[in-house]
Structure formats: C-alpha cells, structure tokens
Amino acid sequence: MFSPRMKMADIISANHNVILLLPRFGIPLGFGDKAVYEVCASANVPVGFMLLVCNLYTFDDYMPSMEELSTVDMTPLVPYLKASHCYYTDERLPHIQSHIANITERMDSRTGSIFKQFYADFRREITAHFQSEEQNEFPRLCALQNGQRPKGLGKKVSSKSHSALVDTLDDITQIVYKYLPANTMPEETIELLFDILQLSSDIQKHALIEEKILDPYVSWLENGLLKEPTATSRPNNPKKERTAK
Amino acid sequence: MKPLTSVLIVEPSEIIVEGLRAILDDAGGYNILSPLHDVSLLEERLPVIRPDLLVVNPTLLGQNPRMQLAAIAAQHPKMKTAALVYQYVEPEVIVCFKHVVDIRSTRSALLSLLKTALNEPAEIHRNNDTVEDYELSDRETDVLVLVAKGLSSKEIADKLNISVHTVNSHRKNITHKTGIKSVAGLAVYAMIHNLME
Fold this sequence. Notes:
heterodimer, A: mainly alpha, 10 helices, B: alpha/beta, Rossmann fold, five-stranded parallel beta sheet
C-alpha cells in the first residue's frame, strides 16, 4: 500500500496509470524526488485522499474501511470525480470519435454508419450518466458535507449501470477487431483499440471509487446527520433515477 | 422465420450479374448481396457479410486459385462456393471448384445446382480443431434478430413459442459465441451481418 513518505516517482513506477490521476488533482509533473506528502502539500491536495485514490487504482482487492474513510479529508472528492468526468467527456470520448470517423470513412458506407451510430449512442449514454451524477448525487453530497440535511433519500450510484457502460465499451472493441472490415487503416484501428481499452480500464477504476468511497461516505454522512435508521438502508429511489435521465 | 440464403456474386459483367439476380429473385428465398466486380475486396468483405453462397467467376482468381479458394474455405467453413462460367477457363482452375454454374444451363438446372451446393455439409478443415463452433444456429439467429429489435426475453419467448428459460439460454450462447454482451452491440452485430430485414 502506498504511504505519504514514499517518493511520488516510485508510486508512478509501481503503477503508471497514476500519471492520469495527477491532472485531476491539479498536481503538475516535474516533482523530482519529492515524497508524496510534499508534492501534495505544494499542490494543496489533502495527501490522505490522494493516496486513497492511488491505492484503489493500484490494488484490486483494497477495500477501505469506514474508520479509514472517516479520517480522510474528503473535500476533494467531488472536484476529483468531476475532473475525471471532464477528462472522459471532453478529451477521451471526442478523441475516440475522431479515430472512428477516420476509420469508417474508408469503409463501405453502410457498415461505417452503423458503427458510427453505435459509438454516438454510447457516447450520449455515458455523458448522460455522468451528467445525472453531477446534477443529483454530487450536489447532495456537497450539501451533506456542509452539514445540511438534503430532503429525501439519496440514490446510490448504481454499480449495474457502470458495468453496463463497461460492457458496451468491450463490445465496441470486439466489433472493431472481429467484425469490421480489416485493411482499412490498420495502424489507426490499433490506436483506436488501445484508446478504448485504456478508457475502459480507467472507467472501471472510476466506478470502484464511486462504489468503495462515494457510496459508503454518503451513507456515513447521512447516518450522522439524518439519524433516521431507514435513511441509509434503502438502496435507491427509482422515481428520482428516472427523472434524472 | 428462416433467414434468406445470402448470395455474393463476384463477376465483372453487369449483364450476367443482373441475369443471375433476376433468376434467383424469381425463385425466392435468396438475398443477393451487393455484387463485387473483382476479387480485390473479397477477403475484406467476406468476414463482414458472411454469405451462405459465393458465386465467383474463376477467371478473376489470381495465380494460385486452389490456394486462394482453400484459404477462403478455411476461414468461412460454412460458406459454399460455386464457379460461374461463360468463357474458356483453364482446366486446372475449373477442377478447384466442386460446383460449376454454366450460364448456358437452363433456369431449373441452375437452381438445382445451387441447391445441391448449399445442401452439401460443411467441410471439416484440419487447422480449425482448436476453434470452438462460433457460428450461430438458426434458432440463435432468430433470437438474436429479436433481441436486436429490442424485444425482451419474455416477448421473444411468446413470439417463438418457447420458454423464457430457453430464450435466456440462447442469449447466453449468442454472447458466448460472439463475445458481445450489450443489446446495442448485438444489434450492430446483426446489422453488420445482414441479419435484419
């Protein structure tokens, strides 16, 4: 497990995917041989939260306990999640779409347009999913963090909807390498595949953060504030979920 | 709802293609895919459109027609192939084909020859022993098309007069064979393979 006194560079050597997390925390590269706590201090990032995310990204069976979560400064949680959403919706999804546009241009138009539509639908679906979280769960969490008692019950981020999104990403890769006509821009097709695979594994980790940190943390805050025994035991509010889409 | 037999014609002459198309359309049960005028795009198109029957002008094949046909047959073991002949073809080329369609033959002789070709059992190739059977059965294809149309398992069960349990087991097999899990992905698979009307 990573700790505050480790070198930042050593964490990245252990798991290069941590590089993707740094911009989401506002941590610039060029940190030399500084320890994690020093790097975090100069970027004004609570080191406990930063390490929580790095550990979740790196150790598959890591499951932080509630005691552990309750000692961590969670103020960067919502900004971090929003920054991740932003990275997906503003950078990766358009980037992948431009690869797909290039590749499908060389295909017969029917197959090309079927595939383009498939991706466009997926992009719309995942963007709506992120928007719903930002418009519903995140403001509710901020209110709880500020000691307010939001009305009604919150809805937990559904792990089912995350796995459905990841399934669709897997389907996109399967269709690309198995069923699309070969020989149309092989190099760019391979780039596309790696981009999608990278996005898929990043989104799986992102889902873990929401399931292992966000959900238990929200429940914990609700327990403390609402003092209603049923408030956290009900899994979700289907009516709210429907209107959110 | 048995899908139509899909036929890919590879032939430069439009007159011949249209003539063959008219005869097959008249006979019914055939879906004539957009024809190719030469073999340059053949290998690329076959995995996508997966025709049941390939009708090819043997003069279009390259230097080594036997190898070329064997490679195609190994990759598409269920597809049947017939030569379409109306000019002189080297004997060593013509013997590579089990089925030869002569355009001077009568309509009924032509149709019965294609039927014979289609009813021939798929050849077993020595080099595919590690690959599981990934071709969808007719019933799985029926279920796939209905899934792609957005029907629930219950609706599919009612429509095909089978139990929901059987539908779900077909769905499991479809996902296992194609590697595709989402309904949207299965719809794309069905469209790319020309399974939707």
